[in-house]
Structure formats: C-alpha cells, structure tokens
From TrEMBL:
<protein>
    <recommendedName>
        <fullName>DUF4034 domain-containing protein</fullName>
    </recommendedName>
</protein>
Amino acid sequence: MAREGARPAYDPAGPDDALRSALQELRTGRWLAMRTLLEDTAGWAAWTRRTQVLATAAAGTDVVRAWLAEEPHSVPAVVMRARVGVERALRARREGHRRTHELWIEAWDMSQEAARSAPPDPVPWVCLLALAQLDRRRLWDEHRVAAPEPTLPPGPWGLLAEADKRDPGNREAHHRMLQFLYAHAASPRPAEAEGFAQLVGQTAPPGSALHLLPLYVRVERYRREGGRDTALDLFWVAEDATREALRAYEAWFERSDPAERSPLDLNHLAHALWGAQRFPQAARVFDAIGPYYTPVPWTGRAGRPGEPAEAVEVFLRARARSGATP
C-alpha cells in the first residue's frame, strides 16, 4: 500500500539500473560503461533521458573529453559533449560566473556540431532550446520566431519544431520551452507559460507525459506566489487544480507504459492528487513511485523550502494520508 514502504532517498537514475551502473563508473573517471549504455539505448525517449542524467554527472569531470580523445568520430560522444557543454553553461548562469557568455557560445557550437553529426537525433535541438533561455534580451533571430498560436509570444519555436519533428512530443524539449517562457516572463505569474502548458496538455496524445505540464506550472506558480500559507494551500483543491490532476492521471498514468514513466513526473502527479484530496488515485501513484522520490515538488510544501529532510517528511505524510483512504 502507499502508506507503507522504506524512507525514500533521491536517486537520479530512478529505476534505471543500467543507467545507475554507468553513473557509478562515470564518477570514477571511466567512460566505457557510458558508451555501452548509449549503444544499447533504444528509443528517443530513453536516449534523451539518459543523456541528460549522464551529462549532469559528467559536467564536473573530463570523462567525455577523454572518450572523444580515444574515439574522435563517435557520434554518441559528440552528442554527450554538447550535453555537457549545455549543462556547464546553465550552471554558470545560475552561479553568476564571469565565463557564462563564453561557455554559452562554446555549448552552442557543440550543439550545432552534434546536430550535423546526428541528423535524426532530437537531443542537439533540445540542447539549443536549453541554451535559448540564456538569451535574456532575445537578440538571436532563432529565439524570436513567431509562435504557432497567436496567444503565445515569439520564441525559439523553430528549435522546438526541429526536436518535435525527430521525436514527436519529446518531453524534455517541451520542458525547455517552458523554461524559456519563464526566463522571459514579465510578471510573477506569466500567462504565456500557463497558456503553453494548457495548450500542449490538451492536445497531447493519450499516454504522453506532456499531460503533466500544467502540474509543473502550478508548482512554479505556488513557489512564485509565496507558498505554504493557508490561503495559498487552498488553491490545490480549486476546481482547475483538481481538473488538471485528474486529467493527467487519466490521460497519462492510466495509459502510459510503467517502464517509461519519469520519477519526476510521478512525484508531480502524486503531489497534485494529494493536494486535490484525490487520495485513492494518489495512493496508486505513490505505489508506482516506490522508493524513487524526487525533491521537487515536495520542497515547495516544506516549512523551509530547499531543506531536503523536510521535503522527505512532506512526501511521507502525503503518502501515508493517501494510503490511509479505503
């Protein structure tokens, strides 16, 4: 039952044992397991997810550079170099590093090379989308393309279209687009981001993880508006919040392949259903989560946001409350 289970801990690999093994090797400076993992990866969804997680771990190392030195014509290595370059540029911006612009341009060049080396691959276009948020004044032409819907602002829609052409409904590509809209928002509650999430969620096919985009927007809105006071807690049970949670449950959770579900998506759905007091549905999602907790979105409901231990306590309370319902 959802009320039972060991105390959770965050694991970036989630239930992907092969990815976990490759990460362990990567952290010791070895790249052969990463190469083997990527060679064995089937499907763009798994490829996108695994390259992202690997890049997060590799960004502080020279592992990918060593791989390329040994195998300079390896296409997966070229794609991973772009992934690592993007991760470093985004980290530099978050930390206010003086080399941010230099790392951004380097990552853009790497992503362009990856796109040329791997024409069918959506990941180089996801990389370019991720970098678009660094262009805060939208100076680049490719970041000022007219939107496909008149209610949405200009942005890197061409980059999204390229990723979508290679992998329709690519989860990370749409989340990167959402990050771009947040980065260029003129208000604490950007209508553009909400409109984009609603539009994508309403048009996504059954089983698509894009049905959860409105849940991510609601968590971000809660964070931006202060969170954790009684008045704001009420909006989790509002009609639109409940509707979004149930739509995601019915259109994604009940129709998706359990092996392809992201732990981050599962945690957002459990959080939304618990907040909407839809406890029987939340219990099923908690059972699917198992031990694969993710700090977000639970940190936003903790007494001290960003405190990992408190976020785990919120998760445990939500799981117990949901599992206690007959």
